[in-house]
Amino acid sequence: MTAQTEDNTGTAGGPRWSAGEHILWRYRANGGDHVHICRPVTVVRDTPELLAVWMAPGTTCVRPELADGTPLHREPLATRYTKPRRTVRSRWFGTGVLKLARAGEPWSVWLFWDRGWRFRNWYVNLEEPLRRWAGGVDSEDHFLDIAVYPDRTWEWKDEDEFAQARRAGLMDEDQAERVRAAGRRAVETIRAWASPFRDGWEHWRPDPAWAVPALPEDWDREPARAE
């Protein structure tokens, strides 16, 4: 990882990385300040306008689950955000994911493929604008998402989780309205078929020489203690 001074000014400022470098893409827990999702990724492109990273198949990541070991998606929605949780290590067994984040935008766009590099869809993940630090980027997920398909149709995803997060007190109404407004702006981008949808990223392929990034022991370190 590049040794840089911490700068939490969003994707437009802070450290810069070269293609092929390994960084961490992390999410803080909603309603908390600890990291509960961490994914080692390889930098594809890093400019003042765009950060693109690749999460390779087989990457060891950190994800949350309930304290009794129940996967989150198997817990009824009514109690999914109120029961105690823990973090566990697990491998990303699906095909890889290309993640694109434009500077200052409250969402990132993920690209998914099926086996054989058959493009499946884009996925707009509504979240806090990425904040850079020496070891990677941090954000907070906002539950609400948008799936975008190759024929340019789209649909909202996880609206039930977004509503339940509000009921569970994980965001107040002001924040919820900011998320809804961000979603509406993302939809405008989709309807206009603006970047990154028009940019041909679905034809991108990773460098076969790239190694799968390792998950460091201090994956949850505070940016202030970054190297």
Describe this entry's structure for a reader.
- With 227 residues, the protein is of the alpha+beta class.
- It has helices at residues 77-80, 159-167, 173-192, and strands at residues 22-28, 35-46, 50-55, 60-66, 85-91, 97-102, 107-114, 118-127, 131-133, 136-139, 141-148, 154-157.
- Strands 9-10-1-2-3-6-7-8-11-12 form a ten-stranded mixed beta sheet. Strands 4-5 form a two-stranded antiparallel ribbon.
- It is globular and about 45 Å long.
- The termini are close together.
Key features?
two-stranded antiparallel ribbon; 36% strand; 227 residues; 15% helix; single chain; ten-stranded mixed sheet; alpha+beta
Output the structural class: alpha+beta
Task: Count the DSSP helices.
Answer: 3
Helical proportion? 10-25%
Strand content: 35-45%
Average the pLDDT over all residues and give the rounded result. Answer: 92
Q: Termini distance?
A: 9 Å
Unreliable runs: 1-10
Radius of gyration, in angstroms, nearest whole number: 17 Å
Report the sheet with the most strands, covering strand number, pairing sense and barrel closure.
10 strands, mixed
Order of helices and strands: EEEEHEEEEEEEEHH
Question: What would you call the shape?
Answer: globular
Protein name: DUF402 domain-containing protein
InterPro entries: DUF402, FomD-like_sf, Ntdp-like
Domain DUF402: 74-193
Keywords: Hydrolase
